Amino acid sequence: MRRSAFLRRPAFSSVVAIVALLATGACTQDFDQFEPLLLSGSSGAGGAGSGGTATTTASAGAGGAEDCANGDDDDSDGAVDCADESCSGFSCVAVPDGWRGPGLLYDGPASAEIACPAGFSERVDVGGRGVEATATCSPCSCGAPEVECEEPTLLGYSDDACDARRPDPYAIQPDQCIPLPASLPFDSYRAAPPEVAAASCPASGGEPTGLAPRFRAEGLVCTRPPGEDGCDAGEACAPREIDGPFERGVCVYREGDRRCPQGFDERRVFARDMDDRRGCTRCTCDVSGVSCTATTTLFDDDDCRRSAATVPHDERCMVAPSVAALRVDVAGTGSCQPRGGMPTGEVVEGDGKITVCCAR
Predict the structure, then answer these.
(1) Per-residue pLDDT reduced to its tens digit, 278-308
(2) pLDDT tens-digit series, residues 217-237
């Protein structure tokens, strides 16, 4: 006759399973596929990691003390684990169809590396709960303004007072040495600053800089490896009393977001991965105060080596020069104001879930 939906066969000693927190470890973001999550946990006889012990041994019989979680008849009385009357702290737990276990659940800080206790060495990393992530972006910045200017021109006049204008303006190729004829086709001229053809500023920055996301809590289930444990098919031998850092009560687990089966009412749902939706708005630059300037340099020689005078293009009336050559230099100026680079989105738990249900 079964005592409850999940406990059978009484025993008299309780289990002390004190498992120490080991060195700090990093939380993983992707827990891969469900089946490969079974990893080999290790703990020596009577040990569960540095600083703690897990006692699964009952009183000694004719053959020695019975270890209630190792699948062996240690005291040579013909009964193994839960079938041994010495193991009062253990009972057979019926595992519901479609579920796996039973096991011991750790649900705590992701920075702790937890060792499975002796006898429960099958380690199942079931994922994590709650996401810690900060969305930040590198600042936007702008390079020097890139200004394209129109070709500068001269307005020629047939007198020396800029009154009698010639019909067509004279276009001048900038940044070139231009030899002048002995007799110019104008007696005076005006030179205006060139117009702005186009202006832009190269933008940079706006890259995500937030730390890698992590779970606030990680889930670990420690189960018994398959083997003889003194229970019927579909059952497993598990302790009645669970010590920290594991949660109270034995647990079963299953892939997906599930309702708990009867008798396992404490429900925890863990995420197997994360969906990082963080980003940054695009960096742009507003261009302002853009203008073009031009300056004519006059030379005494045809190769533009001996400078004679410098004349700005400011629309003043200038008498035609008596020089051998000239060169026009054009420059664009302006300023840029960066915009954008604001954080967007967030990190959420992924769709892959594992449900752990525990009996209290």
Answers:
(1) 999 999 999 999 999 999 999 999 999 999 9
(2) 999 999 988 778 888 888 888
Per-residue b or e along 236-272, where b marks 16 or more CB atoms closer than 10 Å to that residue's CB: bbbbbebbebbbebbbbbbbeebebbebbeeebbbbb
Burial code (b: 16+ CB inside 10 Å, e: under 16) for 34-62 equals beebeeebebeeebbbeebbbbbbbeebe
Instruction: Specify the pTM.
Output: 0.60
| Separation CA 205–CA 106 (nearest Å) | 42
* β-strand partners of 217: 109, 129
Q: Report pLDDT digits (tens) over 162-196.
A: 998 887 888 888 999 999 888 888 899 999 999 99
Sorted by sequence, the CB contacts under 8 Å of residue 138 that are 6+ apart come out as 205, 206, 207, 209, 280, 341
Burial 288-327 (b: 16+ CB within 10 A, else e): eebebbbbbbbbeeeebeeeeeebebeeeebebbebbbbb
| CA atoms of 262 and 252, how far apart (whole Å) | 11
- Cβ atoms of 234 and 94 within 8 Å: the answer is yes
Nearest to 323, CA basis, from 226, 179, 205, 143: 179
Domains and CATH numbers, the chain: 16-134+211-278+347-358 (no CATH), 141-204+284-339 (2.60.20)
| Helix H or strand E encompassing 265 | none
Q: Predicted confidence band at 111 (pLDDT cuts at 50, 70, 90)? A: low
Other CB atoms within 10 A of residue 113 CB = 14
